[in-house]
Every structure is written in C-alpha cells, then in structure tokens.
Amino acid sequence: MRAFLKSPLFVTLAIVSLGVFTQSLQFFEHVYWNVWFKNRAHIEQTDAVVVSLDNGLPISSSSVASSGGKQAELLDRLAGMGARTVFIDYPQSSGEHDLGEEALKAALKRNSTRTIVVRRSSVKSGLNRSEPEEVSFKLPEGVREAVSAWNVNFIGYAVDTRRAMTVDKVWVPSVASTQDRGESQGDLIFPEFSLRLDSIPIVDARSVLQGRMPADAFSGKLVFVTMTNPQLDSALGYYGHGAQKVPAALVDYSGIRGSARGDANVLGWVPLLLAFAATIIAGSKARRRSVKLFVYLAGTAMVLVVPGIIREFGYFLTVGPSLVAMLIYAPLRSSQKWRSRVQMTSSASGLPNITAMAAEGVDRTFDVIAVSVSQYEQMLASLPRELHGECARQIARRIGLGSGDRQVYDNDNGHFVWLENSKTLDGLIEHLEGLRALFSSPLVIGGHVLDTTVHFGVDRNIDSKPMSRIQSALASANEAQSKGKLYEEFGEQRLAQSPWELSLHARIDEGLRNGDIWLALQPQYDFRHNRISGAEALIRWTDPERGVIPPDAFILQAERAGRIEAITYWVLERSIRMLDQLNAVAAPFQISVNLSARMVDHPGLVHRIADIVRETGLKDCSRITFEVTETFSMANRDQAKINLAALRTMGFRLSIDDFGTGQASLAYLAEIPSDEIKLDRRFIRSITLDHRDQLIVESVIGLAHSLGQEVVAEGIEDIVTLEALRKLGCDLAQGYHIGRPMKLPELLELVDLSQAGTAGGAQANV
Ligand code: C2E
Ligand code: MG
Ligand code: MG
Question: What pTM was computed for the model?
C-alpha cells in the first residue's frame, strides 16, 4: 500500500484531482480544443447570414445601429426577401423619445411570425459566463424573444449554454435552442466548433438598405441582425478560430447547429482519466517491451484523439485532467526508474547489486554463492581511482567465466554473489575449487599485476527469503575468509540464531538511507573562553523494530560486517555539512569524529577522506578532529602511523580518545602525532572523592600541556566536577552536565545561548 501511495501513477492522479478541484487545469482544456478544432474545422454551406449594423466598426452616430427607423426598414426588406427567421438584437436605446423606436415596434409587430428579438450578454470573466444586459426597450405584444448567454472559459471562450434561462424573472429560451423541433431534452447546448465561422457570410446593413443585395440572398435563411465589432463586451472566443473574438451571433448560430445534432452526453473528466490509468497499469503489467510500448502509445493516442472524435457523435469528455496526467506521468515515471536504477547498481563497477538480485528473486532450484576477495582494500589502494570499477568488473568476469556466464552481482568491498544450479555437496566443492583455481593467476588491471585469493559462502536454505539467502551467503563467505577455509555454509540453525547479524549489512545501508541512523552532537565547553566551542559527533540508530540501538552494540558488528567504513565516511560528511551552520552562530566551532581503530590502518583511508573534503568543499580541515582510541589492535601499525601523519598534514586535528584506559597510554602518546587527549570518564567520575585520582588527572594535564596537547575531560555530570577540572587547568569539558548528545537544531540553540552568555553572563548549565 505504501509503495502504491508513492507510485508515479498515484502521485499523478492525486495532483490531477487537486487540479480539478482548484479548477487550475482549464488552460490545458483550452489548448486541446483550440488545437483540435484549428485542425478539424471546415467550411460548409450554411443557412445563415449575418447582417452587420456597425460593419464591424465602433458605432458612429450615423450608423444603422443607432437608428430604430433604419432597423425597421431593414426588417421589412429582409422579410420581403424571404428570410426564414430574423434574429435582431434589442435596440440600443438612447433614452430619449425616439420616433425610430416606434417605427421599429411597428415593424416587429408586422413581421412577428418570423422575427426573434435577441438579448445580448456581456462577458463576466470572473464568473466564467456572459450575463444578459439590461434593456429598456419594451417588446410589443406577440413578439418573441431569446437570449444569447454563454458559459465561457478563463479567457472568454464560449463553452456551452443552457437551453433556456430566467432573465428578469421571465423564462427565456436561448438563441441556440430556438430552431429545435421539441425532441431535445438535454439542458446544455454546445457550439459546433467543427464549423468554421467564415462559412457564414457577413453583409453590411447599408448594402441591404440600398438594395445592393441579390434578390435570393436571404431567402429561406436564418438572418442575424447584429453588431459585429469584435471589441464589444458581447464578443466571444471560439475554439480553432484564433485569438480574435467573434460576434456572439456567430456562436449562437454554431449553437443552433450543435443543438440540431441532438442531446449532448456530458461525460465529465473521470472516464478518460480512468481509461488512461488503466492503460498505464496494463502497460506496467506487460512483460514484452514491444507490448509495453504499444500499450503506452495507445494510451497517449487515446487521450489525444478520443475526446475530439467522440465529440462529433455528441459525447463530451473533459480532457484537461487526462492531458495533465499524461504530461506529468512520463517524467515522474522516468525519474523513479532512474532512482531505482541507482539503487540497483554498484556505483563503483556499474554491475547490478544485491538489491537488484533480491528484486529479481531466487528460485528454489538454485544455490546462492558469494565470494569474498582477500585484501580487496589493499588492491584498490594500489590502483588509481579510475581503475577501481574495472577491478571489480574483471573479478566478476572471471567468476562468470567459471560458472557458465551467470549474472554476477557486486556487493562492493570485494564481495560478489551469484546463483548456481543446485548440485551435490561433492559436486559443489569441486566446482568451487575450480573457481578458486581461476584466481590463482594474478589479475592484470591497467598494467598493475595483483595477486589475490578467494573464499566462498554458500546458502542452500531454499525456504528463506531472497535477501536473507544472499546475506547468509555473504556472511558465510566472510566466515570462510576469517577461518581460511575454501567455503562456509550456514545451516538453518546458525541462521536462526543470528538473523540480525546476518542482515546487518543491508540494515545499516538502509538505515543510512532512510534516516533511521542519524547523528547526535554532544557539546564541548572551553574553560579558557567560557563558551561552547565544539561537539563530538555520536552516531544514533533508531530501528523501527528494535528501538534505539546503542552505538557500542552495533559499531562492533559493523566493524565485523565490513560496514564501518561506510558509517565513518557518512559521519564525516554529515559533520562537515553541519559545520557551516554552527560556525555561522559561533565561530570558531569544531566537530570531533570517531575513527574506528579497525580502519586506521586501511591503505585507502586518506584517499577517501581527501575525496570527501573535495566533495563537501571543506576549506579548513582543522575544524574536524579525529578521535582515535588507544586500545586499537592494528594489523598494520606502520600504515596506521602513515595515515594519521597524512591526515594531520592535511590539517585535521587528532585526539587520543579514552586516554588512560589502554595498556600503553604513555608509549602511545609518544608514538601518535596528536593534538589533544581525552581523559576517560572513569577518572573524571572520582576526582572529587578520591585524592589520588585527582593527582593523576592533574599530572596528566601537566604532562599533556608540556607536550603541547590540549586536554578534554569526558563524562562530566555535575558542577562540582566541572569546577574541580577548571581549577586543575583542564582545557575543555564534555559531559551530561554541559549537554547530552542532541540533534543539530537543539545544539544550535544551546550554542546561541552560550554566545549570548559570553556577552551577558547567563549560560547554559555552566
Ligand atoms: P566515546 O567516543 O568515548 O563517546 C563518548 C560516550 O560517552 C558517548 O556514548 C556519550 O554519549 C557518553 N557520554 C557523554 N557524556 C557522558 C556523561 O556525562 N556520562 C556518561 N555516563 N556518559 C557520557 P555513546 O554515544 O553511547 O558512544 C559510545 C561509543 O561508541 C563512543 O565512545 C565511540 O567509541 C563509539 N561511537 C559513537 N559514535 C561513533 C561513530 O560515529 N563512529 C565510531 N567509529 N564510533 C562511534
Ligand atoms: Mg569519542
Ligand atoms: Mg571517549
């Protein structure tokens, strides 16, 4: 369900529905019909003629428009020439007594069987309709009237009209309905936009009055006596006609034609949108690419063509929402595809990763095999960066070669997974030995010759889910490597015992991605300047199932599962990005990042950190302090020292964490080029009670200072301890009394307070 709510189709439908209710899709509706009728409208023989009172120009006093007498004469002439019905606009009254008006009334009475007086309307765009104008002319008894009032879109284009409506408390038919023979029932009438308006001739009233028209020009015709100036308030937009407004009489005639076609079936916006959604779903279900493409094209064509075509048969669809759906669905869908492609491939090698493998599913007839490549980190460190991907791809090719061209999935850090047809254990061992033999000849990558060995993990727990099978194979491969065995296979029992450990790799990656893993900052207080001058970055994991997982519990696991690098680099990157905000409030501000002892001797460490510095644009490396514990069990002490020295050369500060708890504190101090030592909280806790501890702390502070080191006291939980340390000459303090590990916004607030404190006196807790 959650996946559906995030799917491009659902997002599209949600946006479109919102658009419908806020009426913001009219633009698309407008464009569609305008383009449709621009291409589809045609010229036809019509039974209509427009007689223009103003000849399309602004009314001048001499024009026929303002003379009732001339209009009366006009009416008589048109009747005499055989006009079927004459629609004549209500005269524009001058308000004064006008002899012409009386003449007009008389003419209307004379020709009452074939005359209809039309009440024009002016467009009220805010209301999306045209409203009948006020008239003062009194219609003589027995003369019919009709109203021309159209619903319009946001820019005044005619959309539809009602068959009849109340005007000044009287029920008046609309002009469009006057020619019906009484069969039509529907309430709405739509213009027939497929009729091009230049099918209707417009003649100047003066030509009629001067007898310059052919005798049969009006015989049997519907004649509209009206004003044709497009600037008038009554003028309307007409789909397919262009931007210029047209006299409302032309739209009325188009409406008469529309009404003659029978009732309009108004279908609204939902059916087309549902049909569109259905094709999208059908397309996504189709397996073959060609079928998919065909279905999508059919869906697009449907939205573009069907509304226009069925309109000709009297079915009216609202197309705007579907059009918008079509426009936004495609980019949403491709961005989702792109995201999932990124999630499904290894960024280093471009090969599919285990997320992709799990998504494809694992059949019960297969064994899942994983390989762990020994010394992978060291191999990468000896290669230039641009060859790292090639290294992974070459290993994958070699595996593929040995196992019948199977797809090999890359899980980074020299771990690869693939499927093999199930065979007997003996057969499998023989096969794995063959694969290992393939790796006995060195890899040659860009002229670099690299030796390696491989260890395998096997999973044959066919009832487990794909991801746990993959994880189990990977964990087994690690185990095989640490035991120096050809392969390892975790049986169901082992799996049941430690599912957490087995899936940790994937969980950590997921946690980093979705925010379950986050960074807390614990403030550090500077005794010398009485301000909060830094913070230690401490990782936090709030797992939705297991709740808060303390770092001590998973750092160790992460180290074992080979995920500690990813975590550390993530912490470093986050910390650097937080520095800017903190320095904006309280410069200079520094952040301490814990560097796991397990990775201090990695040959790739300095490179990777240099990459992060570049990516984040960190200018001053001394704003980051790396904390290293003195208890680390380094495999490669020399490399560790080289790394630490290199980091220091780059400008980073180094701190010896938990000082005083290791076996060789003093030797360590001499060996490591540090800037700071952090006194472990076990000493700090008791200094106010135990005089010996106090003496130890005092002398360590003295020693550190004489070696040019700063001293940070950890675990300060009360003011007495804090003051004691201040007296002993300690430089910096960290502990619950100053502040617990907290989120960035809280720290920003606290730091802000402590800044104010420096100026004004009051301080946070201190
Ligand atoms: P640490 O580096 O010595 O961090 C100090 C620990 O002491 C933190 O525990 C902190 O919450 C706790 N602490 C601070 N003030 C007080 C206090 O006044 N009283 C008491 N009782 N405790 C206090 P936390 O966050 O549980 O971290 C435990 C250890 O986990 C850290 O010890 C560090 O070794 C490791 N760790 C935490 N985050 C990371 C990380 O991002 N990377 C690595 N590699 N290790 C981390
Ligand atoms: Mg620490
Ligand atoms: Mg510590």
Answer: 0.57
